[in-house]
Amino acid sequence: MEKFKDLHEKASWLRGEFLNRFSWLEKCIDNYIAKHFAGDDVQKQIDMHLLFLGDNRVTMDNKKQIFHFLAESYDLEWYKSYKSEIFEIPSKKRAIAMNRDLTELIVVRNIFAHRIVELNPEEGKKNGYVGFATYKNYKDVTYIGDEYFLRMINAMYSITDYVDKRSLKL
Question: From what superkingdom does this record's organism come (predicted)?
Answer without folding.
Answer: Bacteria
